Amino acid sequence: DQQVKQNSPSLSVQEGRISILNCDYTNSMFDYFLWYKKYPAEGPTFLISISSIKDKNEDGRFTVFLNKSAKHLSLHIVPSQPGDSAVYFCAAKVAGGTSYGKLTFGQGTILTVHP
Amino acid sequence: EPEVTQTPSHQVTQMGQEVILRCVPISNHLYFYWYRQILGQKVEFLVSFYNNEISEKSEIFDDQFSVERPDGSNFTLKIRSTKLEDSAMYFCAARRWGVGQPQHFGDGTRLSIL
């Protein structure tokens, strides 16, 4: 199942700089996108989401951008902090209709922020 | 208080045995889900549960799997006769009513089949 892809397995960034995590999707029916962060031995923690009717959503240091024509979204973290080091998952869902909100996940990107 | 609590954190079971994984969402969640992540692979959807019945299930969720919410609080996943390939992290998730509501995940149960 390659409907959601995160092509970068890992990303290394210096503290204080910007982290950009990317995600591509193929299913045109997806209309809601979420980013989750996961630490070892914990479950995914919700970070930020965006509806397909928007192209940007911001929450503190986290901003998600959506480019529907390119079927691409990205998560920007600025400034990056060592505590941001984790695995980041992009997820998508089809809203409404017969869908009850199942999420389709990307493979994840390991972010390492160096002090 | 975590949104979703899962027990046990680690379960070791002999192949062919039944296993029950438990999940306790906090109140006011209406939709419940099970996902799994095999080591090195993606998080995969198994099943969604709403209004005391299965609303959607994946191809993985075959006759060996079942879910129930027997007492209105616990949400369980049962695997009747475990196979080696059932070894994975199993995550429970829950969300409130509303289009923009995210799913909240538990910390997972690591299931090891010997």
Describe this protein's structure.
The complex is a heterodimer of chains A (115) and B (114). Chain A has 115 residues and is mainly beta. Helices cover 0% and strands 52% of the residues of chain A. Chain A is built from no helices and eleven strands. In chain A, strands 2, 4, 5, 9, 10 and 11 form a six-stranded mixed β-sheet that branches. In chain A, a hairpin with a 6-residue loop joins strand 4 (32-38) and strand 5. The mean pLDDT of chain A is 94. With 114 residues, chain B is mostly beta strands. Chain B has strands spanning 4-7, 10-13, 19-25, 31-37, 43-50, 53-57, 65-68, 75-79, 88-95, 104-105, 109-113. Chain B starts with a strand and ends with a strand. In chain B, 36% of the residues are buried. In chain B, the strands form two sheets. In chain B, strands 2, 4, 5, 6, 9, 10 and 11 form a seven-stranded mixed β-sheet that branches. Chain A binds chain B through residues 1, 32, 34, 36, 41-46, 49, 51, 89, 91, 95-96, 98-108, and chain B through 4, 6, 31, 33, 35, 42-45, 48, 50, 55-56, 58, 91, 93, 95, 99-100, 102-108.
What is the count of DSSP helices of chain A, taking H or I runs of 4+ residues? 0
The number of helical runs of chain B is 0
Number of DSSP strand runs of chain A: 11
Radius of gyration based on Cα positions of chain A: 14 Å
What characteristic shape of chain A results from the CA principal axes? globular
Calculate the mean pLDDT score of chain B and round it. Answer: 92
Shape of chain B: globular
* End-to-end separation of chain A: 36 Å
Low-confidence sequence ranges of chain B: none
Number of strands of chain B: 11
Mean pLDDT of chain A: 94
Distance between the termini of chain B: 34 Å
The biggest beta sheet of chain B, please?
7 strands, mixed
Features:
heterodimer, A: 115 residues, mainly beta, five-stranded antiparallel sheet, 11 strands, B: 114 residues, seven-stranded mixed sheet, 0% helix, 52% strand
